[in-house]
Please model this.
Amino acid sequence: MVFDTEKFIPGQSVDCVIVGFDKEGLKILILRWKLVGLWGLPGGFVLKSEDLDKAATRVLNERVGISLPFLQQFHTFGKKDRRANETRFSHLSKMQVPQTFLDWFGQRFISTGYVSLVNLNDCDPKPDHLSDLIHWCPLHELPDLIYDHSSIVEGAIDFIRNQINYLPIGRRLLPEKFTMKELQQLYESILEKKLDRGNFQRKMLKLGIFIRHEKHLEGGAHKAPYLYSFDGDKYDALLKKGIGFAS
Amino acid sequence: MVFDTEKFIPGQSVDCVIVGFDKEGLKILILRWKLVGLWGLPGGFVLKSEDLDKAATRVLNERVGISLPFLQQFHTFGKKDRRANETRFSHLSKMQVPQTFLDWFGQRFISTGYVSLVNLNDCDPKPDHLSDLIHWCPLHELPDLIYDHSSIVEGAIDFIRNQINYLPIGRRLLPEKFTMKELQQLYESILEKKLDRGNFQRKMLKLGIFIRHEKHLEGGAHKAPYLYSFDGDKYDALLKKGIGFAS
DNA sequence: ACAAAAGTGTTTATAATACACCCATGA
DNA sequence: TCATGGGTGTATTATAAACACTTTTGT
Model:
């Protein structure tokens, strides 16, 4: 076996919904399991002497190479049959796999779901030893995922939408410099509704957490937009009270 | 031993923050452990073939005799030392307690916290086999609780405050019939701030989820207030969208 | 008739919404 | 110069907040 099951707490796992954003919209990081060719979320187990949060941080670091990620627990999935419903694994037992592996993966797991907001450009996604492919998949084009991972993603998105004013949405998902339009599109992707351009811009700028830079240069037969970045300290201070967006 | 540790998932527990309300304010149900004389939250373990939510429901039913409780998971507490920090248990090992018991309680537990909103009048609190006293304690008079239970309560209250518009606050915490003043005091207890009487009343009544009954009769040298109850269907329908209160 | 608390109304301030106007840019 | 999209302004509406007035009741 590739890992030593003795080191981990049995029956306890973490699953990470790693969210990115680019001009196409929100993306979720998924990976394909070698043995069965099915897609799932990056996840892992909890070391016997490791904080639960730490386990999630470790998974994230191993998977996308981000060492100080934004990571927040949102729900613990504890249905007794949440893995038993997965029939696509059943042939595995007939394969040439060590019994300890089968025993470990055959147990019931209670899994805690974490959301991470990352900047796609800062990521260096790497498959793990169980997976052969890793993919930033547009949220609305996700394939069927193993186990209950599809509903874990759904829970994560609901959580983000619900907590939108208290999560570092812009700061974590956008690159250092961005245009107001990009920020607006980000909020629109999450809320899945159009926002008024003028009102959004005014409301945002009134928050006083932006630094305005030189003009955008690149193409487009139109007025070039300003580039903004966040004033980190002011952003963090305001986030505690909630960063309201134009609803 | 009083229970068979073989039946339960090792290392996994649930803790319930059971919240009630009366004219004195918010109350939390706590119980005192026989062996050590310390107060803690009602909690329990998860059967090997039982949903996590079901375990919490079972604990609640056993503790306050409510069979269809409002119960919602809010956070999973997974710090590796969340129980190890409790030194007041250390003498237990010297006592006359079965080794299986010590082994079980000595493990690291990852515990999922649940909030329950109950009507004090409908409750019939019963201590369990490990506790000798059960007590509805005013939120702001809570004693030191074992392990990290104090921070679990804190997390629960933060959760309620945060989700106040999406939780059946009035419906679950108040008796069938209540006055507007009682409803207002309930919101004030949770938010820990005074609300304007007139604005609160108007905003609430505009929601259209109330049924107005005959006049209150009992004492007080003043105008008797109306009694209200909730229109259950309308309440539930509105709750999904959020029941806004006067902030 | 008075105090106390309930019910209701009024005014003002603030924020949300819709939409209009002008400006800069590259084709 | 024209189309496109950016930046900003304005009018309207809705909501929040503060507080005043009236009503009912028991003493």
